[in-house]
Amino acid sequence: MNKVIGVAGFKNAGKTTLVEKLVTELTRRGHRISTVKHAHHGFDLDQPGKDSFMHRAAGATEVAISSANRFAILHELRGAPEWDLKDLLGKMSPVDLVLVEGFKRDAFPKLEIHRKENGKPLLHPDDPRIVAIAADVALPQAQVPVIDLDDIEAICDLLLKHAIPVEKATAGMGAA
Q1: Which of 3, 26, 38, 170 could lock onto 31 through a cystine, CB 3.0 to 4.6 A?
Q2: Which residue from 7, 11, 176, 29 is spatially nearest to 106, judged by alpha carbons?
Q3: Which helix (H) or strand (E) covers residue 101, if one does?
Q4: Is this structure's pTM higher than 0.90?
Q5: What is the mean pLDDT of residues 140-147?
């Protein structure tokens, strides 16, 4: 059964760097991990001149690329609305834990990443789904546990403790 938990925070808080370290540690512990990353801007996984790029450029809605080592399905929205987190999680293969980077406004448990140098306010306590904060500074005002941003083992323990089944997380989200 997939469980899910998020990693949320403002831009340049170190979410991607932390997720990379978390995936490394969790897989070292024997867990099967998948990730979902929200991009606020356009992105491309394909390169001009490649066959799959030319298929998409010609108008294909989906292009599947497969090899002995991996496969990818590129889906062009072609003006359709962006998929929400519920839709994306519904497409994921079964793993032990899905780490979601971004989607900070969605209703599921999250670890907040906070760096003093960013000068940004905390998402907590305004987001009641923040279960803890990983920070590079003491936060005595926090009403949830605060873990040192470099204590990867403790952060992993906390994520595993607070992750919830995908079905429970998506029950209140939009229709798939």
Answers
A1: 26
A2: 7
A3: strand 97-101
A4: no
A5: 95
Look at residue 76 in the predicted model and tell me its pLDDT.
84
- Are 166 and 44 in contact by the 8 Å Cβ rule? The answer is no
**Three-class SS state of 71:** strand
Could you give phi then psi for residue 17, rounded to 5 degrees?
-60, -45
Question: Is the separation of the CB atoms in 36 and 167 below 8 Å?
Answer: no
Q: Angle 152-162/15-28 helices, nearest 10 degrees?
A: 80
* Residue 165 DSSP label: E
Question: Is the distance from CB of 146 to CB of 138 less than 8 angstroms?
Answer: yes
Q: Which of 118, 146, 120 is nearest to 133 (CA)?
A: 146
Query: In degrees, to the nearest 5, what angle opens at C-alpha 106 toward C-alphas 169 and 155?
Result: 75
C-alpha triplet 47, 32, 131: angle, nearest 5°: 100
